[in-house]
Design a protein that fits this description.
single chain, 17 strands
Length: about 450
């Protein structure tokens, strides 16, 4: 099914030309590394080291504290300086393990050594993924071992590798598809070992023809893996839109992809699975795009988790002019930094530095009922009515209008000629409704 797509969506300026042709640069930074115990959806991990302890690369320093939780492993060797609350990207504080990097990078026993996944049982593979602390690296941060253990594994017939990377400016997944092709195929084969009836589909937007060609070449002769080019449109990489585009199946907020016979994982997550299972390396690294018109030299960097965002700015040769806005993630679903002195986590994907803030340039005006938001919404919702309900604190009406089905992709805000902050309004309303439900 070529040029598969979904209803609605938008076409923002892509901005990928700034960094897409730049190979991934390996970066090891000296100094202090900060490991948040809350880098995933669910319960924060419990720190299992204390001040003064010596740690090794790959050593578990935080233990999952529940079913939906994830281990945290150190990306450096060195000494624990502190276990204390530190500021995170979203402005909240969480318990963090602070390690002084000794720059020797001494690893735990077996780190990086080959392991034959075909000799492992399904439970052993799931346990390895759990021990490695792997979570969804596309932004959600859902613990991967939970995703790989659905109630009815025999009913999983698609493993979708999300290589859409539809967010403007970001090119880290694209570069990994070109440079770490074999690791993606290897990780997908490990996942296919868990699901006897599944087929692997690598989904890539058609604005990345060289990545599609490279992947197609790599899967020749693989009878359980195919590459599916998708039509370039935002938010093609959203879980629901990807499942619909690739399989024609629909899911809603009350359903999991597994309910539609699908497992969906981002390119980076699949690489992390390969490294954990086949190379005995837990999740300790990530690839970020440093981009935007404020950077002197945009670049894709592979860094050790726990380093500071602020320390990465020189890798892009600093700023040519003071950015008006710096975003973690892309312009559609990312959020603005208010301080770069926060650690890189498992879900970090970029530092996007822009010389103008288009959102702040315009004052919102009253809704003109043009219906563009309805056309753009990939969830078939009615954003203008939802906004009206939310602004009047009529949360019952918001829920009746299926407001909880919104996944905050930003398409409605992007097309609104009145510049109304629709997505932000829905985010607040959804948080309120979710909080009220938890109280009950």
């Amino acid at each position: 099914m070529s040029n598969a797509t979904f209803r609605g969506g938008v076409h923002p300026y892509e901005g990928k030309e700034l960094s897409k042709d730049l190979p991934i640069k390996q970066v090891n930074l000296p100094g202090e590394y900060v490991f948040s115990m809350a880098q995933h959806i669910g319960a924060p991990a419990n720190p299992i080291v204390e001040k003064g302890d010596k740690v090794l690369v790959g050593q578990k320093i935080g233990e999952a504290s529940g079913f939906i939780s994830a281990n945290i492993c150190s990306s450096v060797s060195g000494t624990v300086k502190a276990v204390e609350p530190r500021m995170l990207l979203n402005g909240s504080k969480a318990t963090c393990v602070v390690i002084e990097n000794d720059e020797e990078y001494k690893g735990i026993e077996g780190l990086g050594e080959d392991r034959d996944y075909t000799k492992l049982s399904k439970d052993e593979i799931r346990d390895i993924v759990k021990e490695a602390g792997i979570v969804g690296m596309g932004g959600a941060g859902f613990p991967t071992n939970v995703k790989l253990a659905p109630k009815e594994p025999d009913k999983i017939d698609y493993i979708l590798v999300n290589g859409a990377e539809c967010e403007p400016y970001l090119t880290s997944d694209y570069r990994q598809m070109l440079e770490y092709t074999d690791q993606i195929i290897g990780g997908l084969k490990v996942m296919l070992q868990l699901f006897d009836n599944a087929k692997g589909v690598i989904c890539i937007e058609d604005n990345k023809p060289d990545a599609i060609a490279k992947m197609q070449e790599a899967v020749q002769g693989e009878d359980r893996i195919e590459v599916l080019p998708l039509k370039t449109k935002y938010p093609q990489g959203g879980e629901r839109t990807l499942i619909y585009a690739a399989t024609g199946r629909k899911i809603y907020s009350a359903k999991l992809p597994a309910d539609a016979g699908c497992i969906v994982d981002n390119v980076s997550t699949v690489i992390a699975i390969y490294r954990a299972v086949c190379k005995q390396t837990p999740l300790i690294q990530g690839v970020l795009t440093l981009t935007g018109d404020a950077f002197n030299t945009p670049v894709n960097v592979e860094v050790r988790l726990g380093c500071s965002h602020a320390d990465l700015i020189p890798e892009g040769d600093g700023f040519k002019t003071e950015p008006v806005k710096i975003i973690s993630g892309g312009p559609m679903m990312g959020f603005a930094f208010f301080d770069l002195n926060v650690p890189v986590t498992k879900t970090s994907s970029s530092i996007l530095a822009l010389t103008k803030d288009e959102v702040a340039e315009y004052e919102p005006t009253p809704c003109i009922r043009c219906g563009r938001c309805v056309e753009a919404c990939p969830g078939n919702l009615m954003p203008q009515k939802m906004a009206q309900a939310a602004l009047h604190n009529d949360y019952d009406a918001f829920v009746k209008l299926n407001g909880m089905e919104c996944y905050e992709c930003g398409s409605c805000t992007f097309v609104c000629p009145a510049r109304r902050p629709l997505t932000q309004t829905f985010k607040q309303a959804r948080q309120y409704v979710a909080a009220q439900r938890r109280k009950k």
